[in-house]
Design brief:
41% of the residues lie in helices and 17% in strands. The chain has 315 residues and is α/β, with parallel strands linked by helices. It folds into two domains: 19-102 and 205-314, 3-Layer(aba) Sandwich (D-Maltodextrin-Binding Protein, domain 2); 105-199, D-Maltodextrin-Binding Protein, domain 2, CATH 3.40.190. A five-stranded mixed beta sheet has the order 2-1-3-10-4, with helices on both faces. The protein has a five-stranded mixed beta sheet with strand order 7-6-8-5-9. A hairpin with a 2-residue loop joins strand 11 (273-274) and strand 12. Helix 8 (176-187) runs antiparallel to helix 11 (258-268). The longest helix has 27 residues, at 213-239.
């Protein structure tokens, strides 16, 4: 009888035995940033942990935290600025793991047209309405010795790259994993760029996996299993970038071409792992960000680091 029981434990879990986990992305459509989760689903990393992951694509980036707060989603993917601003507002949301370790956001120009901080005055700049862009632009103004009134801001809906390439804006604001592959696939050339510290912005993570404190208190075991599987999926995707891009492109045809997703994911791979591995965070990921936001008048106070993040699920 003991042999029979042991053999049964080795069998894959049936679908009805899997614990559901609702993962909410930060955008209304999937892109290559969702690669670890897509890989985790396709390669069975979540199933191996007894989980069934359902992906939710929200109508906008502001909806992710709300879904987590009211219990309509379990794990989220958000900008780190959303977490910091949310903590100040009393939202019960914390980061459970940073997605990438460095800031690859910046200013981009057309191929052959250099972008210079000292020449920003009078330029038209494409921006988005998300919290990250709003938080980063004051740093750019300070580094360039200008104010918001010295430039013309053009709000982009889906992407500011078409506006840049069509000559409707002088400079685009974006992350290198999105804008650079777009230009490369269309023009077979690299855009000019000022990224991270070169753009005057702090070198801190842009995105994080998040959850509500209530969900963690009630379903901490499931959350730990989700994180364990996501770490494995991230490492696998980093080691097999071409196959990972194929998985994302097949799962989400609207995410872009295979070439675009491959270039985008490969641009992220070098900044995913930190000194303590994938997803592990520390005070330096959060306190400098909060302090920088306070210094630029966007935040009233810097809270203790444990109000922003926890590593408990990775232990």
């Amino acid at each position: 009888m003991a042999t029979v029981v042991f053999a049964a434990q080795l069998l894959p879990a049936a679908a009805e035995d899997l614990t559901p986990v609702r993962f909410v992305f930060n955008w209304s459509s999937a892109d290559h940033a969702i690669t670890p989760v897509a890989v985790g689903i396709e390669k069975g990393f979540y199933k191996d942990e007894g989980l069934k992951v359902d992906v939710i694509l929200p109508p906008d980036s502001q909806t992710t935290a709300r879904l987590l707060s009211v219990g309509q989603a379990d794990i989220g993917f958000e900008a780190t600025t959303d977490v910091v601003f949310g903590a100040e507002q009393g939202l019960p949301i914390v980061s459970v793991g940073v997605y990438a370790q460095h800031n690859n956001w910046g200013l981009f120009g057309r191929p052959g047209e250099p972008v210079k901080l000292e020449e920003l005055k009078g330029k038209s700049i494409g921006i988005f309405t998300d919290s990250w862009t709003k938080a980063m632009m004051p740093f750019v103004y300070k580094a360039g010795g200008i104010t918001e009134n010295d430039v013309k801001l053009i709000i982009a809906q889906d992407s500011d790259t078409p506006l840049l390439l069509a000559g409707k804006i002088d400079i685009a604001t974006n992350t290198s994993n999105y804008l650079v592959p777009t230009v490369q696939t269309q023009l077979r050339k690299d855009p000019t760029a000022l990224v991270g510290k070169e753009a005057g912005v702090p070198d801190i993570p842009i995105w994080a996996y998040t959850a509500s404190t209530e969900y963690l208190s009630k379903h901490g075991d499931s959350a730990k299993k989700w994180m364990k599987a996501t770490v494995k999926a991230t490492q696998w995707a980093a080691e097999h970038p071409d196959e990972a891009a194929q998985i994302v492109t097949k799962a989400y045809p609207d995410s872009g071409t295979l070439e675009y997703n491959t270039l985008g994911w490969k641009a992220l791979v070098p900044i995913l792992s930190g000194p303590d591995g994938y997803l592990v965070q520390n005070d330096q990921h959060w306190l400098p960000l909060a302090q920088a936001l306070k210094d630029t008048g966007q935040l009233k106070e810097v809270l203790p680091a444990d109000k922003y993040y926890t590593n408990e699920l990775l232990k």
